[in-house]
Design goal:
The chain is about 50% helix and about 10% strand. The chain has two domains: about 10-25 and about 105-265, Rossmann fold (3-Layer(aba) Sandwich); about 30-105, DNA polymerase, domain 1 (Orthogonal Bundle). It starts with 11 loop residues before the first strand and ends in a 5-residue tail after the last helix. Helix 3 crosses helix 5. By secondary structure, it is α/β, with parallel strands linked by helices. It contains twelve helices and six strands. Helix 7 links the parallel strand 2 (about 125-130) and strand 3 (about 155).
Length: about 270
């Protein structure tokens, strides 16, 4: 006999960090990857730097190095393919660069404090997950706390066997919040790995377009775009995130409360004819 569908209330919101609640445009990680490869004589584009965004930063680094054009440039510069040892050495080099960059890119995305207050008014636990390691995560948590945001739980890639797209960070966050079943949790993020993390965890999954990596612009840059160009870029981001399987797609954290209402309604009617 199949289990009965869950018809209870929502219990938790699990938020990505960069591009979702902090660092509008997810600029800190992209800039550091560009700088790191430049130091090794290999120019990479912003698009290449952003493509694996949301993954563990070491996995992100390896994914960039494996891109055909980047791999060709590595061979030209080094006379051989990049090895696991090369990736590990570059990851160790990346850590202090990322730590140094984070304070300048830790402003809360507008609406985060109001959204968090609304989540808590609804009785929801609030957690974060991130592709940053623990040292990086703690820097961002400290910067966010100074601005008034402190999650009930914060999970990073160092806390679990593997990062996104595997589900362990989202599931660990739910465990720390004691929120279950997965259908009672909503995972929110701005990248394809975020979406896959939520889906693989069995959670409702909401993707953000304007504030995150898919658009890849600061708020000032996105506001300055001609209306038609902005809409076209948002539509491309929506298509990519919808193709990954996101249940809902909105522009930023401020748009989340009505989505929670929709999810609550669907849960209340789960399994009804």
């Amino acid at each position: 006999m199949a289990p009965e569908p869950y018809r209870g209330p929502l219990r938790a919101v699990i938020l990505d960090m960069a591009g979702t609640i902090v660092d509008y445009g997810s600029c800190a990680p992209a800039g550091v990857f560009i700088d790191l490869f430049r130091r090794h004589g290999i120019p990479i584009t912003t698009a290449q730097a952003r493509a694996p965004m949301g993954a563990h930063k070491r996995d992100h680094l390896a994914a960039i190095a494996a891109m055909p054009e980047v791999a060709d440039a590595w061979r030209a510069a080094n006379g051989r393919d990049a090895t696991d040892s090369d990736i590990e050495a570059m990851y160790r080099e990346l850590i202090p660069l990322q730590l140094a960059a984070l304070p300048a890119y830790s402003a809360l995305i507008p609406g985060t404090l109001e959204a968090a207050a609304e989540f808590r008014r609804r009785g929801l636990g609030v957690a974060t997950t991130t592709g940053y390691n623990r040292e990086m995560t703690d820097v961002v948590l400290q910067e966010m706390a100074r601005q008034g945001f402190e999650p009930d739980a914060a999970v990073c890639v160092d806390d679990v066997p593997a990062g996104r797209p595997e589900p362990w960070m989202a599931l660990e966050a739910a465990k720390r919040l004691r929120s279950y079943p997965p259908a009672a949790c909503v995972k929110v993020g701005d990248t394809v790995p975020d979406v896959l993390e939520g889906l693989n965890a069995g959670m409702w999954t909401v993707a953000l377009t304007r504030s995150g990596n898919e658009l890849g612009l600061t708020q000032a840059e996105s506001d300055a775009l001609p209306r038609g160009e902005l809409q076209a870029r948002l539509e491309r981001a929506t298509t990519r995130l919808r193709s990954a399987g996101a249940h809902f797609i909105v522009e930023s954290i401020v748009d989340l409360p009505p989505v929670l209402d929709e999810i609550s309604g669907r849960l209340a009617n789960a399994g009804k004819p």
